[in-house]
Design a protein that fits this description.
Keywords: Membrane, Transmembrane, Transmembrane helix. The chain is mostly helical. 75% of the residues lie in helices and 0% in strands. The termini are far apart. The model has no long low-confidence stretch (mean pLDDT 92).
């Protein structure tokens, strides 16, 4: 004689962990893009104005 059995399994997802992981990844990606953009702008200024003028402009902006 054969008997049919049915097994139910439940998978629980930790939504708080998954959400925070996604947000952390998105934030890190955005920070990397901003850093790359800032480096590209600094390199462009160095090429067009020269390093001395860039440092002089930075000090003028910080000190006043």
């Amino acid at each position: 004689m054969t008997t049919n059995t049915q097994i139910t399994t439940t998978t629980r997802a930790n939504t708080g962990y998954e959400t925070s992981t996604f947000v952390l990844g998105a934030g890190m990606t955005m920070a990397a893009l901003v850093g790359i953009w800032g480096f590209a702008c600094l390199a462009s200024a160095m090429m067009s104005m020269g390093p001395t003028n860039v440092v002089k402009g930075y000090l003028t902006a910080v000190i006043g």
